[in-house]
Specification:
The complex is a heterodimer of chains A (131) and B (533). Chain A is mainly α. Chain A is built from 7 helices and no strands. In chain A, 63% of the residues lie in helices and 0% in strands. In chain B, 25% of the residues lie in helices and 20% in strands. In chain B, strands 1, 2, 3, 8, 9, 10, 13 and 22 form an 8-stranded mixed β-sheet that branches. Classes of the chains: A mainly alpha (131), B alpha/beta (533).
């Protein structure tokens, strides 16, 4: 499915980010990768929100040098370094960094947990059919 | 008659008695009352005409369809997420049907402190009766209380606190689940959720009201100190979510190529305008229209009912998503007769998986392990009757900017509420408590609750949500501290009325839908009785 808003490079950042936020590399997602769902969602948001999200994504990608002392972008961090890096945003004393953490985190959750084919969904629900 | 804005292919003009902006809890009631009284009415709705049969379980799709800004509207600093409905029926399409009457002490306070005439509980009672009858409000039966609510009821009883099973505007609903928050696919007159879209709006249309969907009001027109109409634009099929006022509109069609849409406009000439777009969009429209604001109160006095999720992890499988999501709540800490200014409710809370995920702390493996307990989670919300006050302004593009900061007393109340919520869940059998901080606090016993006090309630450290913005065009007899008078008419603009939660002088403290409807009924009837074009 073609991307509607994010560039392929941005989609790659989002994919790695989603893996780290969700804590898995989506072994059971069959229908669409989370990034496709996130992209379709963001494409429909008002312009100011889309711009903010794009900026946040780039900021997150390029700030390991500032906040983790690593001379490489987020997508090139080892899983352990990525975890430490994300944690530095979550626990930052600056509200703006915590806000960005939460915004990106919840976006990845929306992409991942809205799919009925994920393992957690499959083992967690026995909802009635019909919608 | 409903006209879909996306199908309009020319500029249109309307001349009517009353133009109503918004079709939610206030606008729908006003439209019906005015049309039944024989006035010609046109309603402008920015969202779509939802067909409940098309409601899906796909959370991103439904967030985009039912909510402003895809459900991620937030305060200026991002610290409070504000969910507001969009489309025919407004927030009554996604709310969870609590039909609660306004507390008597609140109405008395509004009368005494703000000089509002004829708003005693007995004055408002006939309006409430009519709204309840039209919405089919009924007591939720014991057999309809799901396990989520039952466990919270159990905890409440164990603590010796006061709580009650509430009344709902809901008909029989066989497949009811937490997806109710994304719209009720069974909703139709008498069945499922009795939103304004299936109750008041059909009545208003039958009485002759006309309604435009995908139609964004952009300006209220005033001449010689009184309103004379509204200007609006139709949103094209690719713009169900308006992206930016007055922007050039390029969007991909199905083939992926770009095409430019011409923007078609609607000009309504009317003797009266009724604002019912909610406590963010109504002041936004006022400010964008550059209407008089002599008391500088437009957009001020914003209250949000800020709410924080408290999760309890249980050994037993609760399956909280099954059944009616909210039926019971704890009002032990909302003693308005003693203190009408503060307090909080503890109410059940659960939702689709993606929304529950956002309500849990941390990320990665820690979060994933919590999600594995999805079937074992009992959620409740601490919903604050807030004294803190914020403000809605507009930026250069005319978009709303929402500023709100909790004051010290409200922070303390929220912390107390989180602790009480956790105590209730422990009393009901929870083995661990989880709170939506950026990182997980491990709370496994009462003595761990002190960690909540230490961590506190800090912006963007804990998820705060609001579904009840209110108070930005408040009612009162004094034009220096109120925007509209005792019957909803603007002090400074003749013929302009407000019938949504904007007019609440203070936080109301309880779910506001019924009060909004009753106030709209009261104001619309008065307008019809005194009608002189």
């Amino acid at each position: 499915m073609p991307l509607q808003f994010f560039s392929p490079k941005e989609a790659e950042i989002l994919t790695v980010l989603t893996e780290r936020m969700v804590g898995t590399d989506f072994p059971n997602v069959e229908h669409a990768p989370p990034v496709t769902i996130i992209d379709a969602f963001v494409a429909e948001l008002p312009l100011n929100l889309r711009v903010q999200l794009r900026r946040a994504l780039h900021l997150f990608q390029w700030c390991p040098i500032l906040f983790a002392g690593k001379l490489r972008p987020f997508t090139r961090l080892s899983p352990r370094d990525a975890e430490i890096y994300i944690e530095s945003w979550a626990e930052s004393r600056f509200a703006i960094r915590r806000r960005l953490f939460r915004g990106l985190r919840d976006l990845t959750f929306l992409g991942y947990y809205s799919q009925s084919s994920t393992d957690i969904y499959q083992t967690s629900t026995s909802e009635p059919e019909g919608r | 008659m409903i006209t879909r804005g996306r199908d309009v292919t020319e500029d249109l003009r309307e001349t009517v008695d009353v133009c109503i902006v918004g079709s939610g809890a206030g606008g729908a009631v006003a439209a019906n009352e005015l049309a039944q009284a024989g006035l010609s009415v046109v309603v402008l709705e920015a969202g779509e005409n939802h067909d409940p049969a098309t409601f899906s379980r796909h959370t991103p799709e439904m967030l985009l369809r039912l909510f402003w800004d895809g459900g991620i509207r937030a305060t200026h600093d991002g610290s409070v997420l504000i969910s507001q409905g969009r489309g025919i029926g407004g927030s009554t399409v996604h709310n969870l049907c609590y039909a609660v009457r306004p507390p008597d002490p609140i109405l008395k306070r509004w009368e005494s402190e703000f000089g509002i005439q004829n708003l005693s509980p007995s004055d408002l009672s006939p309006c409430l009766d009519r709204v309840e009858a039209t919405l089919g409000v009924k007591q939720i039966g014991e057999e309809q209380v799901n396990r989520l609510n039952r466990i919270i009821q159990r905890g409440c009883q164990a603590m010796g606190w006061r709580g009650t099973i509430q009344r709902h505007n809901r008909g029989p609903c066989p497949d009811c689940s937490a997806d109710c928050l994304l719209g009720c696919p069974a909703s139709q007159p008498g069945i499922g959720k009795q939103s304004m879209a299936v109750s008041y709006i059909p009545r208003a249309l039958a009485a002759g009201a006309r309604l435009y969907t995908d139609c964004l009001a952009e300006g209220i027109v005033m001449e010689n100190g009184r309103v004379v109409g509204v200007t609006a634009r139709f949103l094209s099929v690719d713009m169900c979510m308006p992206r930016q006022a007055n922007s050039k509109v390029d969007s991909p069609d199905n083939s992926g190529s770009k095409r430019r849409h011409k923007i078609y406009r609607l000009t309504v000439r009317s003797s009266a305008v009724v604002l019912a777009a909610g406590a963010v969009n109504s002041p936004q429209l006022w400010l964008n229209s550059h209407l008089p604001n002599p008391g500088k109160q437009v957009g001020h006095n914003l209250h949000l009912h800020p709410a924080i999720f408290v999760g309890g992890l249980f050994d037993e499988e609760v399956d909280a998503y099954q059944g009616i999501p909210q039926s019971f709540y704890v009002d032990h800490f909302l003693d308005l007769a003693r203190n009408p200014e503060s307090g909080y409710l503890l109410m059940p809370a659960f939702g689709p998986m993606a929304l529950v995920a956002a309500s849990l702390p941390s990320f990665g493996r820690v979060h994933r392990n919590l999600m594995r307990s999805y079937r074992n989670i009992v959620g409740l919300l601490v919903l604050l009757h807030d004294r803190s006050s914020g403000r809605v302004t507009v930026n250069r593009e005319g978009s709303p900017v929402i500023r709100y900061r909790l004051n010290r007393a409200d922070r303390a109340s929220l912390i107390e509420g989180l602790i009480h919520g956790a105590q209730l869940l422990f009393a009901a059998g929870a083995k661990e408590i989880t709170l939506p901080y950026t990182q997980r606090l491990v709370i496994k016993r009462e003595s761990d609750l002190e960690m909540i006090r230490q961590r506190g309630v800090v912006e963007n450290d804990i998820l705060i949500a609001s579904s009840h913005p209110q108070g930005t065009l408040r009612m009162g007899s004094n034009p220096r501290n109120a925007v509209v008078d005792s019957y909803g008419e603007a002090h400074a603009v003749k013929g302009l009325f407000v019938v949504d939660a904007s007019l609440f002088p203070t936080s109301i403290g309880v779910p506001p839908m019924l009060t909004i409807g009753a106030m709209a009924d009261r104001i619309a009837r008065r307008l019809a009785e005194n009608w002189s074009p």
